[in-house]
Amino acid sequence: VDESVREDMNKLEDTFPGISDRFRLVNRIGEGTFSTVYKAEDLLYDHYDNDWDIFGQAQAQEQEAWASPPSKRRRVAGAHGRQRKARYVALKKIYVTSSPIRIQNELELLHDLRGCRSVCPLITAFRIQDQVVAVLPYFPHTDFRIQYRTFMVADMRHYLRSLLTALHSVHEHDILHRDIKPTNFLYNPDLKEGVLVDFGLAERHGAEYASPCLCTHQSYVRRSRILSSYYSKNPPSGGLSGGYPKNDSRSSRRANRAGTRGFRAPEVLFKCTSQTTKIDMWSVGVILLTLLGRRFPFFNSADDIDAMIEMASIFGTRRMKTAAAMHGQIFETNIPTIGEKGYSWEKLVKWSSCVEDLTESEQQATRLLAGLMELDPTKRLSAEEALQHEFFTSPVH
Ligand code: ADP
Ligand code: MG
After folding, report:
1. I need a surface site. Which of 130, 302, 344, 363 has the fewest CB within 10 A?
2. Distance between CA atoms of 111 and 68, rounded to whole angstroms?
3. Which residue in 192, 118, 113 sits closest to 151, CA to CA?
4. Closest Cα to atom 21, ligand 1: which residue?
């Protein structure tokens, strides 16, 4: 362990006096915008049942929560079946720059999802003043950026089945993860299983209850077609101000756009105010596209507008206009290389991976890809539907 990491780990030990009685910090394994994650050995793992969940008592006992004897803890493990003891744990120190509500939200959602297969369980959490640490079982995994190149179709199938299994449970709980991407799905190729982590941006469905988006109206499909054909006959002209209808009394839109660039669903970019669990399914599609196309990251635009342009170069302007109109937005571009029609997924996968022909199983995967990267969220596959796809149910070898 290098010097700066050692120093950082010492600091954590200083912040939580007594932490070393229970955990031996091994290394720093993740450093993100909202947290730092350390690998640690649970020294009392033989002694204490660390599959106990004391969230809920954490506030009352925050200072000694991690050290309190089992008898003081509320047992929930029995309610959701077997949980293994974890000798190694991941300590996720959530930065104080995260709002307390956000931190509470992450821990609460993880608590709700305890016992869900392929979702990383929360062992416990503790807090001293504004410092919060979540304790999760350590899950050995490989680095996607190294792994994806070597993936055969069978590996893609295992990877996706595990990810979709996790999302199926998460979505059943009416929770949107919002940040589905390889670094938040820890995959272990030996086990052929992964665990979903990082519920830092997750939310309950319908949490932001603003005015519902146009796409929730029954007749939206018809209306969006009319709108989109209106806009193609009457393209906005002149400067930006000519770009939208006159007498537009709508207040400027505010929608949750949290997520990671390259993985945001079209309705997130179009600021849909009625986003659903389908936004996660789009991101799964982006991962599959990365695997099939053998390019990571596949999309790499810095902002939402560029992201729409990337999408338009695949889907073509016609479908992008319809998608935008569905959410009450207008899509226009004068970039000459972006055609009206777009390309088929099969063609894109071949181009991207530089192969002439796709095997039977790659074709199945490509059809699954089409169902996931569907612009219209109401037509996009759910996790449950995706798991029933031919790619999983009738694999060809
Ligand atoms: P952030 O909000 O900072 O992205 P994450 O929860 O995604 O935090 O964790 C960051 C990184 O730490 C992950 O990408 C992963 O490499 C590592 N990590 C997180 N949880 C675990 C775990 N339970 N086991 C092993 N590694 C983990
Ligand atoms: Mg993360």
Report:
1. 302
2. 19
3. 192
4. 90
